[in-house]
Each structure stands twice: as C-alpha cells, then as structure tokens.
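Crash report, auto-generated. Payload:
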Amino acid sequence: MPASVTDEPLALTALLSGPDQPGLVARSAGWIFERKGNILHADQHRDDTENVFFQRLEWTPAPGMDPAVLGAAFRSFAADQLGMHGRVALSTDQTRVALFVSKADHCFHDLVLRFLAGEMRGKIVCVISNHEALAAATKHYGIPFHYIPVTDATKPAAEARQLEVLRQNCAGLIVMARYMQILSANFLTRCGVPVINIHHSFLPAFAGGRPYHQAHARGVKLIGATAHYATANLDEGPIIAQDVTRISHRHNVEDIIRRGRDLEKAVCAQAVRWHLDNRILVYRNKTVIFD
Amino acid sequence: MPASVTDEPLALTALLSGPDQPGLVARSAGWIFERKGNILHADQHRDDTENVFFQRLEWTPAPGMDPAVLGAAFRSFAADQLGMHGRVALSTDQTRVALFVSKADHCFHDLVLRFLAGEMRGKIVCVISNHEALAAATKHYGIPFHYIPVTDATKPAAEARQLEVLRQNCAGLIVMARYMQILSANFLTRCGVPVINIHHSFLPAFAGGRPYHQAHARGVKLIGATAHYATANLDEGPIIAQDVTRISHRHNVEDIIRRGRDLEKAVCAQAVRWHLDNRILVYRNKTVIFD
Amino acid sequence: MPASVTDEPLALTALLSGPDQPGLVARSAGWIFERKGNILHADQHRDDTENVFFQRLEWTPAPGMDPAVLGAAFRSFAADQLGMHGRVALSTDQTRVALFVSKADHCFHDLVLRFLAGEMRGKIVCVISNHEALAAATKHYGIPFHYIPVTDATKPAAEARQLEVLRQNCAGLIVMARYMQILSANFLTRCGVPVINIHHSFLPAFAGGRPYHQAHARGVKLIGATAHYATANLDEGPIIAQDVTRISHRHNVEDIIRRGRDLEKAVCAQAVRWHLDNRILVYRNKTVIFD
Amino acid sequence: MPASVTDEPLALTALLSGPDQPGLVARSAGWIFERKGNILHADQHRDDTENVFFQRLEWTPAPGMDPAVLGAAFRSFAADQLGMHGRVALSTDQTRVALFVSKADHCFHDLVLRFLAGEMRGKIVCVISNHEALAAATKHYGIPFHYIPVTDATKPAAEARQLEVLRQNCAGLIVMARYMQILSANFLTRCGVPVINIHHSFLPAFAGGRPYHQAHARGVKLIGATAHYATANLDEGPIIAQDVTRISHRHNVEDIIRRGRDLEKAVCAQAVRWHLDNRILVYRNKTVIFD
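Recovered output after restart:
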C-alpha cells in the first residue's frame, strides 16, 4: 500500500524571499531554536545577480505550541526583522485543488489516482470542464463535476461561473490538466490562486497550438513537456518542471502524441507535488525549487 | 586499447531513397543475393505522408568481387530499376574531415581524441581556425593547422582561402566544432561537402547568439545541444542529434556553460559518427537515421 | 481522443529466427513481393557469435487475399525453405490478456487505462488476484475479477484454479502487474502462454525481495525497474525493458518506493506494448526487440 | 574560454556530521554571523533512522580575518560545542591529485583536459602507471609520469614505491582512472588519502572483472558506470556517482565498451568534481552529496 503523506509528525514550512543580507540563516534558525523547534530541512539560495535571498525552512515546533500561532508569529518576524516575505504552511494543511479538463483524460486519471493513493498533500475538490466527456469518470471517483461550456460569446459568463465554483469550493490551486481553453487575464487576476498548466512541448520551443505537429514538422529528436504557472502571457509563465523523451524518424504524429501523454502526466504530477509540498518560490518569471 | 573500426570484414553500405513502390526490399536484396553477397544489416523506412522509401543496406560481397565496381553497379541498378538515389560506400573508405574551430577547445579535443582512438571511420586532415589559440594543440596531434582570420571586410577572401585548403586536402566532411563564424550561403554551395554544426541549445529553442544566456534568462529546467547540417538558414538545417541535461536555479550562466560543454561534446561526436558510418539520409530538412 | 491502434490497414507481421545464411532477406521479401504484398517495415538482426538470424516483417497483402491463409503459407515457407521458425500475426489480432495483481494498484490502473485508451493491441479479459483489494476497481472497469487466495498449502490447488480461468478466457498473455506470488515452474509450463513480470529493481542488481530496501541500504544513486519474461528461475528470465531514475541521500525508503512506482508503470507498459505489437524475439535468455 | 574556478571570492567550506540535536543550524550559522561572515550556501541533511545530522556551510569571512585561523576556530567550535566533526576547506585550496592509470586513456585525457581547462579545484601532480603506454601523453601535458610495474611478486614493493611518490608529491586525492590493478587493504590504509575508483558497471550489478561482457551475456537494456571510494572490499565502497546509457541487441561487446567509455568519463569527472568542491560526506558506506 502506498505511504500516506499524513503519517509524518506535524511540521511548519516557511517559504521566504527578500533582499540578501548577512545573518539571515542565523537569525531565522535562531528564532526557531529559541522556541525549541527542531529544523528538519533548511534550504537557501542566493541570486548573485539580483542580490535576493530565498529560503525554505521546515521544522517541528516544541510540544504544546499552537502551530498556527507560531507560523503567524514567524511570518511577522521574517517580514519585520529580516525583510523577508512569503508564507508559512502547516504539514496538516490540505490544499483544495480544482482540476480543469476538456476531453483528454490521461493527466486527469493520473492526477486523481495519485491523490487517491495518498501521494499528494491536498484534495481534489472539483473538476470543471467545457465538455461532458469526463463527467462519468469524475463522478465514479466521487468528485463533483461542473460542466461549463465555453464559446467566444459565452466566455465572460463561463469564467464568472468558474470563479463562483472555485469560491464555493475554497479552491487554493487550479490545475489545467490539458484544459483546451485559454484562461483570460481577467480570470487569472480574479481567481486569486496559483494556476498550473501543462504544455505539451519543451518550452520555449513550440509554444502555441499543436506543438507535437510542430515538433514533427521540424524533425526534432526529442519531444518535451513543460509545467508552468499560467500568466496572462500564454505559455510564458514561470517554468516549474520539464522533461523530454527521445523520438526518431519512425515516429509519426500519432506516435509522438502517445509518447507525449506519458511525459505530460509525469511533468504535471511533479509540478503539482512540488507546489503542494511548498517547495516553489517564484521570482522574476522564474522558479526556485527546493527539492 | 580501443577497438578499431578497421578490424571488420570489407562491406558495402548503400543509402538510398526514392518513391515508395512494392518490391523495393525484395528487388534490392535479390540483386545482392544473386551476386552471392551476404546482407549484414538492412534497414528501411517509409514516410507515409510523402510516400518516400528510405533504405540502408550493408552487405559483404562474394570473395573475388571488386567492391568498388560492385558498388557502382548497385548504384546504377537502384537508380535505373528502382528509382532510388543515394550513395554506396565501402567500409574501407576513410572520410577526410576538416575541423573548423575558434578558441573553445572542448569539442576539438574530444573529436580529435576519438579519431585517434579509432572510434571514427575517417581521418582529420586539417584544422582551420579564425584564431591561433589551438595552433599548438593541433600540431601536437600531428594535424596541419590553418590560421585564416575573418573580419567582415575579409570574409570573402577568407572563405576563398578556406575552400582552397579544403580542396587541397580533399575534405569530404566539414565539422564546425564550435567555430564562431557563420559560413556564407555561397561557401556552403561551393564547398560541395556536408557541413555538421553543433549549436549549444535544444533547437528550435534559443537559436542565434548566446543561447545559454537566453536559457538562463527564461528559467528553463533543461539545457540542450543540437548537431545539425549547416544550411543557408542559420540554425535551421536538418537536425541530426540532440540531447539535454538538467539544470536548476542553483546554476548560474557559468555553470550552465560548463555543463553545456559536456553536452556539446557528446552530441557533436554522435552526429559525426553517424555521418561517417553512412547512417543518415536527409529529406525535406529532416534526417532519417538508421542507427 | 487517443488514436486507436485499429485504424490501421490490415497487415501481417512475421517474427522469425533461424541459422543465418545468405539470401534470407531476399527470399522472404521475394515471397511477399511475388504475392503482390507491400512491405511496411523490415527489420533484421544477426547474432555474429551464434550465427543466428532474426527477422521481423510487416506487410500489407494484396487485396482479396485471405490474410490468415497467407500467414500460414508464409510460416510454412519460412520453416521449409529458409529454416526460420516463429509466428505470423494479423494486425486485427487482439491478444487476450490476463492480469495477475495483489494489493498494489499502480501498474493495474496504468495498464487498464492504457488498454481502455486504445494504446494497446489487445484486451484485458480477466484479473486474477490473491487479494480482494482490487475487486471493486476491476469491476468498475467492466473486467471480470477472480479472487484466488494462495497459501503454501493451497498453492497447487490455487494454480490449478488459475489455469482453469486462463483457459476459459483463452488468455494469450499473462502480465504479473506487481503480483506478489511466485508462479511455480509447473504453472509456467502448463499455462502455455508468455508471462511478463515487472521487478522493481535494475536487474541483475537487487533480485529477490524488497529491492528498494536493498537499494537504499547499498546507497545507490539510481533506482530501476525491469520487465522480463518469467521463467522457472526467479528474476532471471529474458529482460524486455529497463529504466532508471535518480535518487539521492534525501530519499528515504518511502520516497524510493513512490518514485519506483512511476518507473514500474512505464517499464511494464512498454514491455506489454512491445509484446502485443509482435516486436520481441527471445533467444538464449535474451531478447531481440525490433522497435 | 572556460571559466576558471579561481575567479570566485575567498570562501570557507565546512563539511560536518554528528548526532542530531536541536539548534545545530542556528548555532553554526550564529557563530559565522557573530564574526560578520556571510553564508553563501547552507545545506543540511538528517538521517532519520540513524539520527545523524550532516551539514555543509560555505561562507565568506569578514574582510581582514585570516581564513585559515577562522577555519580552524570553526572546526574546534563545531567539535567542542556541537559534537560535529569534519573538515573546513578554503576556496583557494588546490587539492593535489595523483592519477593511477594503466593502458586505457579515455578517463585519463578527459580528466587532465578538465583540470587544464580550469574546471576542477585542484591540480594533477603526478601520474602513476603499471604500463608505459601513457608516458608520452602525460609528459606532453607537463605532468610527471611514474612507471611502476606490478606483478604478484613485486606488488608489495611496487605499492611501497607508489606510496613514496604520493608522499613526495603531497597528494591529497588518488583517482584510479581505469587503473587495472587492485590496491591492497594495506595500501589504502597507509596512503592516508581518499581514493576514487571508476567501475564500469552499474554497481552492485556486475562487480568484478569484465563487467561489459557480463552485461552483454545477461542481456540488460542499460549499461552503467559507478564512481566510488575504494575500500578494502573490492567494488563495495561508498558510491559517489552513477549513470547509465541505453543499449540494445544491436550492440555487441565492442559497441558496449565504446559507449561505456563515455559513461566512465562523465561519471568519473563528476565524482572528482564533487570531491574537490567538498560536497561529499561519507557515512556507513554511503555518501551524502550536497550538490
């Protein structure tokens, strides 16, 4: 049976960034030590060019401390004393995830089965789709399915409806699991939560539509997939995870699409896992990933 | 000691392509069988979309046959009877290779050492450079070095001089081993031999100058290298080989450049080996590689 | 929607091996050509040491020919005239696959979803398990589930019952998708069909039980998975597919098990696909794979 | 031109391990902060099973401080106050490396060229060989060559001579770059410095002699290479780096050997670089690598 992520002792995870200065490691670690916490993992990164410091601290608090209060206190300390901003999560937090899908079901099944197997620190609370193709499968998994068709004319209304569903479900993360619609800049602003998209190419190569057809036409020897945070600039958001697989002249577009599906599943799941484990900091359209 | 490629029995290798039609395998194999040859390897590929047939045949002729005569005869047969065109090489052929280099020496050393180790079916007959940086190293390897500086003003004259050196050396292949000049369309036409270039990105991503800087700026998680045949359209020729390696936020541009060097060496050597082993057919700006 | 393998034109695939001799390619291709067939793919391999020739031919027959009759005729021709033995399959053949599972469900879901998506040339006709854990999931997929518990005492009876289920379902392939029981030599002989097993290590390293624990204890930097045909010698059958993934000191046994699951899924699916596509020849406990 | 590792500002690197206890991060970082040092990188690892804490700290000292004195002071502090043991290196340290070679030259050339290109934080001070094959090449690189033949009878005397050369050269690291002799337990004890060996298989598979022949005989689909610290138990020392490459039935033993050479070069260089960058801690026959 798969190991569940909830077997671990309660821990806090802080993800912070701010201007570099001497003493950041000592002072943040010192704050935790003074409160008798025990650091499990501590990762740092300095961007030499930008003089920015990034930090991930994971620690178990002393017995009897209220972790939520402690997290808020650390957050204030970091902001006020260190000039570092970010968030503090509890290991018991279960991010509520909304899946956006269309007809393709490979990332859908892969993600849902990983959540059900206890691989992911979160819960899929709803599936939103512009097609009914995955309604039955979603319901079989015991997840509410929301069919919200989208046309050029109805897009504003459809996005309003999507936002309503997200709010009702208190979604903290959106995953576009091969959702074949572009979310508007307005939607991305208003939804207020991170959106992870999986693009079926090794970005920045083959951005836009039909990337596997583009790859086949160019005669590349590797195809790729890229998971990134969605931004208003299509396919240009901060890259989280990428991988590639080898192809040859023997592979036609159909073969490439089939092989690509396996890549998309793996890369999308990797990005979602890192996000839910609070391992990703975004900075200047790039990601720092403490894996 | 490394195995030498010359220990093998004499063989002929035909690389052909032409319009697909039933019987091509049977008739080409039949021609060889009737002359008591023994097929060592036979590879085929059909491009379903274009209805083109590609074939690589490697066979040992019957004792006493003159392989050069046999090769010419097969070539005529394929052209006249099967409508297939291409070339026939002998396993004793040693392609005469000209290396173009600038200051970077990693692909240079790597390639030269592979030729000296007997890994490659060919011989490096000259090194041409627009800098003197690698003159001593080239001479140490016992290879003639030609220093031909290039400026915008002198480029036509420099290319004329390069062509002269190539002709004097009967070069059958040019390898741009991180040669930091663009060969003109005129040069590519007049040199009359294939030119392999190594570009330090996963094309078509990051074509043009300073690809590692571009990759770092975009925040990709994999960097790549691409070996391709040079054409008049810079970085757009038929791709022969590609590979990638993983990077993270921890890698600055210097780290990426260092890791990239290892990729460039491996990908360039792979492309040169496939070419010298007569494994590559070019078609519509793509390659068919019988590996 | 995924491409279905059944959209292709009807074709025959021959997989043959026998003593090498001149003319095998010409004569087998000639036989097909004389009957106005068109070769789609032709792959050959010679084992220089053993002097054995391996061949895979895929061709479309002339219109109006009965492909089953043609296949049988080719098989006789190959045996009688060329001394080559093997089998001939039709592209319309749907191998009937029996899955053996225990409690772990990752390879189970992965394989079933691939069959349902039309990725595989075959059909899962039954699931046999020594546990009831996957009964409901199996039934949801519309596949008959057979619960056959196994203890040391009941093993002979249980295997007899398994053989009966296999026979009733006309199973042509058994896949042990993390089935945690050893099939006896007697069973392997009597079942009369190939059995593919997925072992969760890079064989021959870490054969036997708890391979991920062994890998963690040894401190390796890569873990692997191996799909092989099951033989009477546990974990020593002919290897079909292998892959690895990188781990570090940061990964404990639980992490390794989770990462290993993704490897197992990919490697197992690859092996099953190659088998169903008639791409595998077994010889001297090794495989020749025409991919 | 390749970037030189010596362009960086002076830094200290501490590599420590000891029993885990709360406050180790805070107190070690605090010690540095109190002396106005600035931490560049800080990596930690806890072995949950063994309750051991591992730490790598890289920091720039305040101007005017003597780094050697500071390093010694930190080492005492860590030992006395934290119960953590290990070493502190200066970024200006240049480890003096002795290469042991036999006849194979691929790792030899690869390593020497990397040192000459400034990729490695160290200097090759001597080459020791039981054959004269690489004498001229070594001298061309400007490195002293010591020919010390070894037979069963002369082994003790040869090892004594090797130890003398190592001592005269103040070697701080030995790299067995395909040295085809086993160093005795006595030698390993007496040399007093780490020894990195490159084994041409994916250990623990195919330990011992002729691993590529073993791999070919078993029919594996991937071959590997492993760099490890040499211990008295042949091929069983702590693994530093491993990598694999794909092979198929088409590759005979010669092909495998050639492809393996590229693996050996890459894996050996990686291990040596990590060692020279003070990134490796050894514990219970395993390595913690802070990369």
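Post-recovery validation: The two ends of chain C are 24 Å apart (CA to CA).
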